[in-house]
Amino acid sequence: MRSSAIPAEPISTARLALLPLRVAHAREMAAVLDDPALHTFIGGSPHPAEALRARYERLVAGSPDPGVGWCNWVLREGTCLVGTVQATVTDEGRLAEIAWVVGVPWQGRGLASEAARGLVGWLRQQGVRTVVAHIHPEHRASAAVAAAAGLSPTEEQQDGETRWRLDLPR
Predict the structure, then answer these.
(1) Is 144 within a domain?
(2) Residue 104 class from Cβ within 10 Å (0-12 exposed, 13-18 middle, 19+ buried)?
(3) What is the CA radius of gyration of the chain?
(4) Range of the domain at 159
(5) Where on the phi/psi map is residue 124: left (φ > 0), alpha (ψ -120 to 50), or beta?
(6) Nearest-CA neighbor of 92 among 140, 128, 62?
(7) What is the number of domains present in the chain?
(8) CATH number (domain holding residue 132)
């Protein structure tokens, strides 16, 4: 079985630098993600910097399952971090489940869509064939991001969320 591990590499878009996640990003990201509104559809609450640092340590260490690759990036616009994107890669590197979050002060400017398009393009270059995302049916902004990245909703539901899918050309 081929490993699903694909190392995260820097990705550039018109306005953003997608930088591979580092533990040192935790303090700045804690401030970016410190708004309860970000958790409306995903549950939970903002993490203090120390808890986020521990989470980032686990993410940076990688999945304990060799069949699962974790790729995580922070989004930098200019001099500050504004959000994250991630891809969980499975099926011997052929399937990626993606997610994104942009801090509330930076929302509504198309940054999540730009980051998701950049991520999908990078995944295509890595040989990924299918990209999926799970989106709450009432989260219109996230649905717009998925559509901008080329994904389409399916009839599949998981934990109350709709599965969106994009099959990439070979």
Answers:
(1) yes
(2) middle
(3) 15
(4) 11-167
(5) alpha
(6) 128
(7) 1
(8) 3.40.630.30
Cβ atoms of 63 and 70 within 8 Å: the answer is yes
**Is residue 6 situated within a structural domain?**
no
Alpha-carbon span 99 to 160, nearest angstrom: 16
Q: pLDDT tens, 82-130?
A: 999 999 999 999 999 999 999 999 999 999 999 999 999 999 999 999 9
**3-state SS class at 92:** coil
| Predicted structure pTM score | 0.95
CB-based contact 29:18 (threshold 8 Å): no
Helix/strand/coil for 75: strand
Give me the DSSP letters along 85-100: EEEEEETTTTEEEEEE
In angstroms, the CA 10 to CA 23 distance is 16
Per-residue DSSP letter, 44: S
Amino acid at 131: V
- Burial of 108 (C-beta count, 10 Å sphere; 0-12/13-18/19+): exposed
